[in-house]
């Protein structure tokens, strides 16, 4: 079973690669969608850093947006980490003239904090799952995100399980998860042992 | 409040100076990492104390060796003089690069890194000394050289260029284990709208709690000497 990671210009893939290796997963960095032709792709893992507009543009220019949609249409799994999560959304205030891939039906807004980026380990809680809730701490570093009250987030993400952390009393989306789309705002690959355990959960079925 | 450990190193040894001077060898980096992992430290800064001073080349192999042992954010500092070096460090596992000395010549590296990797990938180390009348002077090369740019302008410029964080080190408190410089923390918070981390002199949990109480806007603190003393390294 192989995880394919679109290689979109400059990004820190090393941390994600190390985490996948530690968990025993095989993966392949792909510099072009053509490298997927004829391959059995179990999951696409989108990761990256940098500007929302720049990443969205590059994904489109290199043809990855079509690959992602086609993969989802074939009941494939798409995983997004941090900026990889963000570009799955419709839009971001970070780059108002650039659209995201629109797979997650929501936009990103500047975080309501006096200082951004918001950096550090945050207690993250699963909000709408039947399973026993354990509070984990994961590492975040972001200036834009999805936030609101828990009922507002419930209404937006009815078909997903989702996690949040609190920022000055407001709930900021930490992750959403369904069978096909597993997207996290935090960095499980930089969140110590709990992060590795979480990444293993995100990769279930892969 | 974030608690970050700042590991100063020379070659592959952990060192610790006082007031940013001296390189007393403490332990191997491997030994220190093993100790900090046992403390469940969340974030790491690795600072090369001689890279800038002696224009030494950045050792990428060493960085990969360090980041391979840690599934935590690891920031690299010391001797980063070009976008190319910053790019190599970030694409090979560094959470962010922290720069200072290069800014004595140009602030371009900040905007170059921000444009490609985002503001969270570049932080500024501010080596600061506050005089008795409250005036702050900023230095580089481990406190040996003074930045020509007036301190208020320097702090404004790095933020305008897109830096994502400032790590302010009190030169006079560094390594002294004599308590933090609370006036310096107030000074930097008054002049910034980005996250700030303070380092220098913090000796115990009680002082950490005091800083957190007095300055809830401070993003974090970085420590070294107190951890080393607790472990018996110093």
Explain what this protein looks like in three dimensions:
The complex is a heterodimer of chains A (206) and B (234). Chain A is of the alpha/beta class and 206 residues long. In chain A, 25% of the residues lie in helices and 36% in strands. Chain A has helices spanning 14-22, 52-61, 64-73, 83-86, 150-156, 192-202, and strands at residues 2-6, 26-30, 41-48, 77-82, 89-92, 104-110, 118-126, 136-142, 144-145, 147-148, 161-167, 170-177, 181-184. In chain A, the strands form 2 sheets. In chain A, strands 1, 2, 3, 4, 7, 8, 10, 11, 12 and 13 form a 10-stranded mixed sheet that branches. In chain A, strands 5-6-9 form a 3-stranded mixed sheet, with no helix packed on it. In chain A, strand 12 and strand 13 form a beta hairpin. The longest helix of chain A is centred in the last third of the chain and has 11 residues, at 192-202. The longest helix of chain B is centred in the N-terminal third of the chain and has 10 residues, at 29-38. The model of chain B has no long low-confidence stretch (mean pLDDT 90). Chain B has helices at 29-38, 60-69, 83-91, 108-117, 151-160, 182-190, 205-214, 225-231, and strands spanning 2-10, 13-18, 21-28, 43-48, 74-77, 96-99, 122-130, 136-140, 145-146, 165-170, 196-199, 220-223. Chain B is of the alpha/beta class and 234 residues long. The relative contact order of chain B is 0.15.
Number of strands of chain B: 12
Taking strands numbered 1, 2, ... along the chain, how are they ordered across the largest sheet of chain B? 1-4-5-6-7-10-11-12
Helix content bin of chain B: 25-40%
**Average predicted local confidence, pLDDT of chain B:** 90
What structural class do the secondary elements of chain A suggest? Answer: alpha/beta
Q: Please give the alpha-carbon distance between the first and last residues of chain A.
A: 7 Å
Number of helices of chain A: 6
Large-scale geometry of chain B: globular
Q: Return the string of H and E elements of chain B.
A: EEEHEHEHEHEEEHEHEHEH
* Quaternary structure: heterodimer
SSE order of chain A? EHEEHHEHEEEEEEHEEEH
């Amino acid at each position: 079973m192989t995880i394919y990671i679109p290689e979109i210009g400059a990004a820190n893939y090393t941390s994600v690669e190390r985490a996948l290796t530690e968990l025993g997963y095989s993966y392949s960095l792909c510099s072009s969608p053509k490298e997927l032709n004829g391959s059995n792709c179990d999951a696409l893992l989108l990761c990256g850093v940098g500007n929302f507009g720049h990443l969205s543009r590059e994904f489109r220019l290199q043809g990855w947006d079509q690959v992602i949609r086609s993969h989802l249409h074939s009941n494939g799994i798409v995983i997004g980490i941090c900026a990889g999560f963000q570009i799955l959304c419709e839009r971001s205030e970070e780059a108002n003239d650039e659209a995201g891939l629109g797979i997650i039906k929501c936009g990103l807004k500047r975080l309501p904090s006096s200082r951004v980026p918001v950096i550090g380990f945050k207690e993250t809680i699963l909000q709408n799952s039947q399973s026993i809730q354990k509070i984990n701490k994961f590492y975040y570093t972001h200036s834009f995100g999805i936030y609101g009250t828990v009922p507002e987030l419930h209404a937006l993400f009815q078909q997903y399980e989702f996690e949040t952390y609190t920022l000055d009393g407001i709930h900021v989306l930490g992750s959403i998860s369904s069978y096909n789309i597993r997207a996290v705002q935090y960095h499980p690959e930089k969140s110590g042992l709990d992060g590795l355990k979480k990444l293993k959960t995100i990769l279930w079925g892969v | 409040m974030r608690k970050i450990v700042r590991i100063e190193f020379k070659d592959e040894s952990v060192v610790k100076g006082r007031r940013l001077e001296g390189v007393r060898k403490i332990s191997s980096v491997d030994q220190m990492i093993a100790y900090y992992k046992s403390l469940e430290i969340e974030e790491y800064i690795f600072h090369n104390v001689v890279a800038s001073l002696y224009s030494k080349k950045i050792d990428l192999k060493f960085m990969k060796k360090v980041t391979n042992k840690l599934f935590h954010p690891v920031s690299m500092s010391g001797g980063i003089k070009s976008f190319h070096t910053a790019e190599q460090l970030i694409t090979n596992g560094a959470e962010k690069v922290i720069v200072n000395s290069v800014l004595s010549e140009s602030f371009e590296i900040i905007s170059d890194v921000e444009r490609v990797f985002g503001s969270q990938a570049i932080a500024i180390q501010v080596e600061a000394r506050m005089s008795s009348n409250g005036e702050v002077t900023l230095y580089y090369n481990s406190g040996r050289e003074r930045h020509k740019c007036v301190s208020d302008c320097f702090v404004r410029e790095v933020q305008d260029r897109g830096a994502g964080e400032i790590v302010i080190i009190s030169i006079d408190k560094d390594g002294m284990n004599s308590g933090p410089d609370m006036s310096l923390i107030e000074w930097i918070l008054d002049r910034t709208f980005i996250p700030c981390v303070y380092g220098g002199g913090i000796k115990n949990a009680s002082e950490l709690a005091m800083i957190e109480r007095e300055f809830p806007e401070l993003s974090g603190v970085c420590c070294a000497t107190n951890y080393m003393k607790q472990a018996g390294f110093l």
